[in-house]
Amino acid sequence: MLVAPLSCTSLNKWGAGIADTLALGLVSEGVHMGVPVAAMPYFNQAQGAQPAVANSVAALRKQGVRYLDGPDGYEPHPPKQGNPEGFPWGAAVAALPLRPQH
Fold first, then answer.
1. Which GO terms of the molecular function aspect are on file (predicted)?
2. Single pTM value for the model
3. Is the bond preceding residue 71 a cis peptide, omega within 30 degrees?
4. Cα distances (angstroms) measured from residue 58 to each of 5, 64, 67, 80
């Protein structure tokens, strides 16, 4: 299961265990049902500087989510300089296993 592009808001809700949308509910369940889950963020550096972001990333990684940031995924862009067309979809899809793991 791929969660991308993952907003700062959704990251922090998911990391805190808040599943108030169908999308967050599916990934919250999936990761605890043995479904491989990868997530690639898309937010700016100012949003990423919030302490809640690091806490949420740590919580998701502890649950087994493959969080794709830095050289392996997406690095936050400067505020007001986002480029949605430049989102690395290829890297996000490549992070998924080729076949379901049982």
1. catalytic activity
2. 0.90
3. no
4. 18, 10, 9, 26
